[in-house]
Automatic annotation (TrEMBL):
Record's compositionally biased regions (Basic and acidic residues): 315-351
InterPro entries reported in the protein's UniProt record: GTP-bd, P-loop_NTPase
Designated name of the protein: G domain-containing protein
Coiled coil regions in record: none
Classification via Pfam families: MMR_HSR1
Source superkingdom: Eukaryota
Length: 397
């Protein structure tokens, strides 16, 4: 498939390769996922990178978009399914690990729950898109950390189904953008290692056409199991034992060590201020000490939450999913009853209107034929229920 280079640039020229999908053993998978999309793509990246905008452009959805410094996607959002190349596509919007309202531990638990439930219920991820702003002057600490977590979530064996998508090209000159793109693709500390293992790098031009060109690279993929899905479901690990959890815990421990050194330095300066009777400086140090202690408490809490809360979250989510599935079953039964009532009513009207006008009979027959072709389906489907379950767990209504 060839695409114009100004809209989509594939920097390594490799097409996605086949791989086997490891089926989950969920006995109720068929009943749960019936009628859902046949192509599911997760979209990841740093806060403010344009994930939600990309999804809205691709799917004509209106998911919430953050403005300014405060992130909006602090939950997993699911776009309305849409049809592309005869396939029904669902895009999953995930929060970044630098979220302004939730800790990294919360974000990892949320994404882990979503991906584990997806895999356990037999749903296939055709691919993962990682969004990066080409307008960023450099790939700083936050972007590097987000991408590191992204790699640990995916694992190397799934990189052939990964697309790194650069956006915000309108905010830089073509020369600057292309130079940054070349650097990102060729440097070991950036995207080169994943591109060498089968990922592709594409450009997004902020149009639906451009988004659909990107998705065409993904929708024919043979789905693969992400590393965190294998770890949580097949290997039955706690989230703190996964590669992503271990990476996050390592970073939290480094933060704690750094803060402990800073606290020791502040305490030494406090002694000097007391000895020299410098009250103004002592008060300033007290304020700084309180701030640092609060930050240390937050980081310590994140580390403890990562260790202790995933299994509780999982049990609550499974209970909520069970409730929502039962509600959907009842709703479907009611819809089926209404469907059947309308069928019976139309048949009776046709029988009673044998002498009516031909146009009225034609209208009734057309409606009857339409009803016979279709059957009542439950609203929402698996992803709608899963999104609502995770929202309720993390106190989002």
């Amino acid at each position: 498939m060839s695409h114009s280079s100004h809209q989509v640039a594939n920097t390594n020229g490799r097409s996605p390769q086949s791989a086997l999908w490891t089926q989950s053993t969920s006995a109720s998978a068929e009943a749960v996922i019936e009628g859902d999309s046949d192509v599911v793509v997760a979209v990841m990246g740093a806060t403010g990178s344009g994930k939600t905008t990309f999804i809205n452009e691709a799917s004509a959805s209106d998911l919430r978009i953050g403005r300014g410094l405060k992130s909006c996607t602090s939950v997993v959002q699911v776009a309305e399914p849409f049809v592309l190349e005869g396939r029904t596509v669902t895009l999953i919007d995930t929060p970044g690990f630098d979220d302004t309202t939730r800790s990294d531990a919360d974000i990892l638990r949320m994404i882990g729950l979503f991906l584990a439930a997806t895999y356990q219920n037999g749903k296939k991820l055709a691919g993962v898109i990682y969004i990066h702003r080409i307008s960023d002057f450099r790939m700083g600490g936050i972007s590097t950390r987000n991408f590191k977590m992204f790699r640990e979530l995916c694992g190397d064996s799934t990189l052939k189904n990964v697309a790194i998508v650069t956006n915000m090209w309108g905010q830089v000159s073509q020369d600057v953008g292309e130079a940054r793109e070349a650097e990102l693709a060729s440097e070991d500390i950036f995207f080169q290692p994943v591109l060498q293992k089968g990922a592709i790098m594409l450009r997004h031009e902020h149009t639906q056409e451009s988004a659909h060109l990107i998705l065409r690279h993904i929708i024919e993929n043979h789905p693969l199991t992400l590393q965190i899905q294998r770890e949580l479901v097949d290997q039955k690990k706690d989230i703190s034992q996964t590669a992503a959890g271990a990476e996050l815990n390592r970073e939290l421990m480094l933060q704690i060590q750094k803060h402990e050194k800073e606290m020791k330095q502040l305490q030494e300066e406090m002694k000097e201020a007391i000895n020299s009777k410098d009250e103004e400086y002592r008060r300033e140090l007290e304020i700084e000490t309180k701030k640092l202690q609060a930050e240390m408490n937050r980081v310590q809490s994140d580390a403890e939450k990562l260790m202790s809360e995933y299994s509780q979250d999982k049990a609550r989510m499974e209970q909520r999913m069970s409730e929502l599935t039962e509600q959907a079953r009842r709703d479907q039964e009611r819809a089926a009853e209404e469907h059947n009532r309308e069928l019976l009513s139309l048949r009776k009207q046709l029988k009673d209107t044998s002498s009516s006008s031909s146009s009225e009979r034609a209208r009734l027959e057309a409606r009857l034929e339409e009803l016979q072709r279709t059957r009542a389906k439950s609203s929402g489907g698996f992803f709608a229920k899963l999104g609502r379950a995770i929202d309720s767990i993390f106190g989002i209504h």
